[in-house]
Amino acid sequence: MTELKEFKLPDAGEGLTEADIVAWHVKPGDRVEDGQIIVEVETAKAVVELPSPWDGTVARLLAEEGQTVEVGVPIIAIEVAAADGVQPTVAASGQEEADHAERAGVPAQAQAGSPGTDKPERHAVLVGYGVKASSTTRRARKTASHTTTEPPAEPGAPAVRALAKPPVRKLAKDLGISLAELAGSGPDGSITRDDVQRAAATGTAVRSGYSVVENGARAGHLTTAASPRGEERIPVRGVRKHMAAAMVSSAFTAPHVTEFLQVDVTGTMAAVRRVRELAEYAGTRVSPLLFVARALLTAVARHPLINSRWDGEAGEIVVKHYVNLGIAVAAERGLIVPNIKNADALTLPGLARSLQTLTETGRAGKATPADLAGGTITITNVGVFGVDAGTPILTPGETAILAFGQVKDTPWVVDGQLAVRQACTLSLSFDHRIVDGALGSAVLRDVGSMLEDPIRILAWT
Fold it and tell me: N or C: which terminus of the chain carries fewer CB neighbours within 10 A?
């Protein structure tokens, strides 16, 4: 005897209320095991892989790739073996959803409940917050003729799924491109973003009669393949949507002040070259960012108020006596700011390894919600884009952000003589409710002094 269970989309953390279905790893009729990854979803924070909470057979998929689903809405129905004496049901128990959340890597926080009791119904959470109240009414599903970007297989022939990463599939769907008709230029013949964009620009590989139409209530526009002189509409979802909302909120909530300092970093660049030769750093990428990070951590220890947040409701400034160092990363899905937990407690080799892991994971789109939560102060390295300086916007909930500009040969006066030195510009934005000009200037000057003479890092630590 079997029962049909529906797995509801769990809260993916940080109080988020919805997620986009990026890619299903199963289809109706597939056998699945407890803990097997069945779907990738993109939240406002990151892409998360969700495992099956049961052993069983997939009965049907209740949400389609590219669809936005609210937390608490069923996304898949699975037939499982019914326990003796248990009547068939179509709902997952709170405890099963909690177990599922724990398998995903983070313990659930809400209390379990069951029908007919006074306890609230439990929804699984993946990262340290309960579920905010939200509607559990499923959004209108798109018809197959409006969402499919790959032509159906001929009768009796198995469908061949094109080799492409979920972000590339999503781009193809948004542009109305048939992946099945493209020749991939990536590894093992995989289809890349460039392949999709070339097809869109030339008007090839567009499925006849299958323009991609977003649900009117959600988007209200028609997305078609772009032409060289045409337009392209990119749905604002997931990480990009969260980034936009966070930046607007930060810019119009915290009064920003930005100060600039040009620094001779010739000594730091020499130290970088020397450190690269040390055995402790073998296999680790050492860049000037390592010394910028260490200098900022040291400045935080000297001026703790710069590592704080404004609690308007309590009327308090919360000073953090630990540093979760955020590093802004330009990922394929948009700007993200993963952070190194307790970075102030790391040795220089440990900090170098953590920086490398963080940036590689972030750029690959594999940063988890936990990686992105809890930052206390941020560095953005605009120099990698060939930019000298900028006025960075604070990461919400933080008091300061340091921008590190490109290092370049610059005329500089040394001991009264003109010389060519390696210099860069530092930009420090801070929340003027907490940090006045004197404190902001002291922090920026300290960081600059340590980059001019890295020995000061040792002297001040």
Answer: N
